Every structure is written in C-alpha cells, then in structure tokens.
Structure to design on (455 residues):
C-alpha cells in the first residue's frame, strides 16, 4: 500500500472505533499513546496498516470503583494510575508498577491497554494485573467477551485478541488495604529500562497467628508470557514466613520460571534473580 | 492522504495539512522551523525532543502530528529567547548546566514543567523530573544545582512572556 492511500481515523467514541474495526479488520492498527507503535513503525513494522487512533476516545479514559472491583478504561495512562487515590489504596501493585515505568514523558502517553496489547513478557503492569486477577473486556461490533488475563497471552506479542476486537476495559479485584503489596523491577538502570526480571507479590498475614492467609506471586520477563507461580504460592499458603520457608519458596520459584538469554541478561542470571528478588520481598515484612 | 490539523504552538495558532505518519517532532522542526527541539534517539529514550502538550511533557518523536491536532504546545522557543532568557535558562548558564547543549532544550522543558507543578522542588523531585532526559556531558549534578537556582530565580523574578503560557 502506498503512503498516499494510507488512512488515519480518529475514533471519538467506542461504537465509532468498533465500526471501523468491523469494516476494515486486517487493514487496521490500533493506536493509543503510540509509545510502542511509533517506535515499531520506525523500525519497519505496520507499514501496510491504516491507523485507528483511540487516544481521544475519552469514553475509554476512566478509573471506577464499584463493590469488590475496579474498572479501568483501556486508554488510562500510567500517569493517571499514579495519581489515582483508588489505585493507591485498593490496587497497590499497579500503583507501584506505574511508578517505575519508563520516564515522566512516556508515562504521560503510555496506556494500560497499550501495555497489555503490546504483549511483551516484560510489560511492567502485567505482573501487577496478574496478582489483581484482572479480567479483560474485549469488544467487537457484535459482542463483548471477558477473558481472564492469564488466558489472554499466547506468547511474546501473541494474544487472543481478534482483528475485529479491541480491549475496552480492565476489571481488577479490589485488594483489601491490609494486604502487603510489593513490586520490584530489575533493570539495567532505574529510568527508561526494560525489565530483566519484574515481580509483583501481594500477601495477607493473619495478625494473630502470623500465618499467610493469601499470597499471589507473578513474574515478568522470565517466561514466554508473564506468569503466576502457583506452586510457590501453595508452598507459602497457611504457613509462617520463616527464613527457611522463604529459602524453600525461592528455590521452588526458580523451578517455575523458564527464562531465555537475550541482550539484557542470561537465562541463568534471570533464574538466580527470580529467587533472590522473591527472598528480598518476602523478608521485607511490614506487618 | 493529507490531514488538516490546527495547533497552538508557543501561543501562535498554526493550521497545516500533514501526512498521518509525520511525527510532532518533524512537524515542529520541518513545518514550523522550530529547530530548538532536537532529535536524539527518535525512540523515546533520550528526551531531547521533550515538549509540553496540553499541560504534560511528551516525547515529540513518539507523538504523531495528527495526534496533536487541537493541542496547546510549548517548545523551548516558547520559554525565552537570546535576548530574554527564561530564569531556567539563566540558571543553566550561571551554574554550568550546559556543555554541548544537545540535551538542554528537552531538559529545560522538563524543568519548566516541574517548576509549574512544584515551584520549590526537592532534589529527589528534580532527579525524577529529568529522569527521562539523558545528558552525556554534565554528569547531572550541575543540572540539579541549576534547577535549584532556577527555582530561586523564578520566585524572585517570575517570567513575563505574554502569550507564552506553559499549559492549557
Ligand atoms: C523509551 C521507552 C520506554 C519504555 N519503558 C517501558 C517500561 O518501563 N515498562 C513497560 O512495560 N513498557 C515500557 N515501554 C513500552 C510502552 O511504553 C508501553 O508498552 C505502553 O504501555 C504502550 O502504551 P501506548 O498507549 O503507548 O500503546 P501504543 O503504542 O499506542 O500501542 C501498543 C500496542 O497495543 C495496541 N493497542 C493499544 N490500545 C489498544 C486497545 N485498547 N485494544 C487493543 N489493542 C490496543 C496497539 O495496536 C499496539 O499494538 C517503553 C517504551 C519506550 C519507547
Ligand atoms: S528523540 Fe525523542 S526521546 Fe530521543
Ligand atoms: S550538555 Fe551535552 S548532553 Fe547534556
């Protein structure tokens, strides 16, 4: 397709966007903040696609709280997540992930929907969304469907999203503020770095028995997709976090990750750090 | 297919036809000849292309010009000029916060935005505010010092640049 026939649509409403997706399907590429798209386009990707811009789809820019859940519009930015009192109080892992995201400039443009759909195994909001049991609302002109986040990713850059669909809403469980939440991003430097390993942990400890009543652990950048570590969680559940148990859990976590070597780090280093970071976070008991 | 866009840049309204693939950075430099904003990496990593768009800093190399339609933009040219330095520019000169100068436009725009939000920032806030701006020369210490100075200068001598508002 030559540049002269290249089209750009700006969707001002969700039905608008869904109609264009329905009519154009394969030819259209969604654009939100553009922090992945523009870089990838400069590298040669998406040259043959029309652009469907949802940055100004205000309908997709919200953080709502209701009952036991929080609903987030796909167009919500990292900056908005950081500023939200609701996210800080009831979805701390997501707040912490947004705080270590890229740089102020990028956080002003980077959207949650873009981070999810870019489907990088290193995406920083993903481990947070995994421990918050996020569900994704995928909408098409015909219907909406709800997919749990752990089923959404098929591999690096591969998801269940169909060409006529877009992500409209992310629904997360509200986390009781009594949970201790931690997020750690290991990168080559603090700002503007892609994670070598990132890790979200949230846990609830019974104040009397000191036993773990709930624990959720999620790793990024150490498998083809972001993962939960169910065996490690099982090992810790209903137990007291003693030093020896924490060491055992770190060992177990190493067997649950399956990292590769790339330009940023070797597989061995990632495995080692998966254990060390878990130990570090679990030993940091604030309750 | 060209698209018609309107943008207020440094207080002046511009109306142009652009290709949808043109970046805001290319638009500013090549259509408006505002070459103060630089291109370093072109990938969001160095921050020398930083401008303020609708009250927030962005990497203009990652924003399409069509996405900035109907926006209010401030570039380095909107802060001060050779004859009337903005207090931040003044402070950078006095404190040696400029060496080769390539990072400076983006750095100063990030600092201008910081001082709008937080007129007397802590060192931690300063470092956070410029964390998306890479400087290969100064080692940052002199920049942090310059920002502290700018906060003082700005307090005692607020800039009077009519029509050059920082944010919407
Ligand atoms: C310098 C730099 C630093 C970065 N640092 C980090 C970092 O620290 N951590 C991190 O996780 N990421 C980082 N990123 C990656 C990027 O910023 C994030 O993935 C961001 O969240 C993408 O959001 P966006 O709105 O900019 O997406 P876009 O670039 O607009 O889109 C990204 C992808 O998602 C699709 N998409 C967007 N919205 C939807 C939707 N609603 N439904 C379906 N598909 C959609 C697009 O088609 C595209 O494929 C960085 C990028 C750069 C350039
Ligand atoms: S040129 Fe835009 S961030 Fe480097
Ligand atoms: S002064 Fe040279 S890059 Fe900052």
């Amino acid at each position: 397709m030559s540049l002269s026939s290249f089209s750009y649509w700006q969707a001002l409403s969700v039905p608008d966007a869904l109609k264009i997706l329905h009519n154009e399907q394969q030819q259209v590429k969604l654009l939100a903040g553009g922090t992945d798209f523009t870089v990838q386009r400069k590298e040669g990707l998406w040259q043959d696609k029309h652009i469907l811009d949802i940055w100004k789809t205000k309908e997709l820019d919200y953080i709502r709280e209701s009952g036991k859940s929080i609903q987030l519009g796909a167009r919500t930015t990292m900056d908005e997540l950081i500023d939200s009192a609701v996210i800080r109080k009831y979805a701390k892992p997501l707040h912490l992930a947004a705080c270590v995201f890229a740089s102020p400039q990028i956080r002003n443009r980077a959207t949650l929907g873009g981070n999810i759909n870019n489907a990088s195994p290193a995406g920083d909001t993903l481990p947070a969304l995994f421990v918050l049991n996020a569900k994704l609302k995928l909408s098409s002109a015909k219907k909406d469907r709800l997919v749990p986040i752990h089923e959404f990713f098929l591999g690096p850059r591969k998801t269940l999203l169909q060409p006529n669909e877009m992500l409209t809403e992310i629904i997360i469980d509200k986390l009781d503020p009594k949970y201790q939440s931690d997020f750690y991003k290991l990168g080559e430097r603090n700002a503007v770095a892609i994670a070598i390993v990132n890790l979200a942990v949230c846990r609830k400890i019974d104040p009397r028995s000191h036993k773990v009543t709930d624990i959720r652990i999620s790793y990024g950048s150490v498998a083809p997709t972001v993962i939960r570590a169910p065996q490690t969680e099982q090992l810790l559940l209903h137990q007291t976090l003693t030093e020896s148990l924490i060491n055992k859990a770190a060992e177990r976590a190493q067997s649950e990750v399956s990292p590769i070597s790339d330009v940023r780090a070797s597989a061995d280093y990632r495995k080692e750090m998966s254990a060390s970071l878990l130990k570090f976070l679990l030993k940091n008991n604030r309750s | 297919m060209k698209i018609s866009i309107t943008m207020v840049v440094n207080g002046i309204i511009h109306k142009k036809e652009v290709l949808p693939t043109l970046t805001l950075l290319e638009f500013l430099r090549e259509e408006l000849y505002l070459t103060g904003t630089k291109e370093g990496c072109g990938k969001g990593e160095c921050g020398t292309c930083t401008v303020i768009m609708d009250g927030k800093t962005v990497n203009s190399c990652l924003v399409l010009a069509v996405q900035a339609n109907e926006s209010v933009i401030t570039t380095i040219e909107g802060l001060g000029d050779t004859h009337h330095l903005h207090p931040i520019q003044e402070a950078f000169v006095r404190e040696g916060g400029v060496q080769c100068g390539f990072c400076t436009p983006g750095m100063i725009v990030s600092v201008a935005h910081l001082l709008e939000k937080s007129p007397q920032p802590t060192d931690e806030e300063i470092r956070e505010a410029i964390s998306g701006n890479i400087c290969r020369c100064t080692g940052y210490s002199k920049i942090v010092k310059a920002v502290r100075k700018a906060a003082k200068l700005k307090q005692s001598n607020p800039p009077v640049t009519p029509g050059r508002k920082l944010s919407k």
Q: What stands out?
A: The mean pLDDT of chain A is 94. Residues 3-53 of chain A form a domain with the Uridine Diphospho-n-acetylenolpyruvylglucosamine Reductase; domain 2 fold (CATH 3.30.43.10). The CA atoms of residues 5 and 254 of chain A lie 51 Å apart. Chain A is about 35% helix and 25% strand.
